[in-house]
Amino acid sequence: MASELIITRIFDAPSKFVWNAWTVPKEAMRWWGPKIFSCPVAKIDFRVGGKYLLCMRGEEGDFTGKEFWSTGIYKEIVPFKKIVCTDSFSDEKGNVVPATHYGMGVDFPMEMKVTVTFEDIDGKTKMTLCHDGHPEGTMTELTIQSWNESFDKLAESLK
Questions:
Q1: In terms of C-beta density within 10 A (0-12 exposed, 13-18 middle, 19 or more buried), how is residue 56 classed?
Q2: Contacts from 22-29 at CB under 8 Å and sequence distance 24+?
Q3: Beta-strand (E) ranges in the chain?
Q4: pLDDT value at position 2?
Q5: pLDDT at site 72
Q6: Which of 5, 3, 26, 45 shows the shortest CA–CA distance to 129?
Q7: Cβ–Cβ contacts within 10 Å for residue 147, how many?
Q8: If you ran DSSP here, which 8-state letter would residue 38 be given?
Q9: Interval 105-137: pLDDT, tens
Q10: Based on the number of CB atoms within 10 Å of its own CB, is 55 exposed (0-12), middle (13-18) or buried (19 or more)?
Q11: Any idea which fold 2-157 has?
């Protein structure tokens, strides 16, 4: 059974800057991935029907040198307010692959949905992420941890 995870964060930056972190490749490269990962590749064709291709590369521990690629298609864009896209594991060419390609369980769907909303609050930005379709249990908990570590890096990148 799939679950929906929701994470809300307040960033001490105007929504334009938080938006750009999601939509401008060089900005996405500054924060994409949990704390022990870098993002050496970010290709973003930011338009409805456009695709993204992102790479997380492990920088320490058991993940050193390992790359995890993801891709998706933008389904809805409301400038500075909302982004809706698909989310799938992929290879480095953007071909969708099953989670088992990266050693994860067969219960992971081939495609999930990500919705990110942005709200201005007195010069700060309330950002809410909804990642829908994760297998319930441990993988959802690990994904929440990964997103939160990524958002910690996003907060630092906005300073």
A1: buried
A2: 22/83, 22/116, 23/83, 27/157, 28/54
A3: 2-11, 37-44, 51-58, 67-78, 82-90, 112-121, 124-135
A4: 64
A5: 98
A6: 5
A7: 18
A8: E
A9: 888 899 999 999 999 999 999 999 999 988 888
A10: buried
A11: Alpha-D-Glucose-1,6-Bisphosphate; Chain A, domain 4 (3.30.530)
Report d(CA 119, CA 138) in Å as an integer: 30
CA-atom Rg of the chain in angstroms: 15
Total residue length of the chain: 159
Q: Which two tokens mark 133? A: 């379709």
pLDDT digit string, tens, across residues 16-62: 999 999 999 999 999 999 999 999 999 999 999 999 999 999 998 88
Nearest to 90 by CA among 68, 109, 105: 68
Helix (H) or strand (E) holding 148: helix 138-157
Nearest CA to 7 among 154, 137, 127, 141?
127
Domain boundaries, the chain: 2-157
What distance in Å separates the CA atoms of residue 133 and residue 143, rounded to the nearest whole number?
11
Name which of 107, 124, 126 is nearest 116 in CA terms.
Answer: 126
Question: d(Cα 24, Cα 20) in Å, to the nearest integer?
Answer: 5
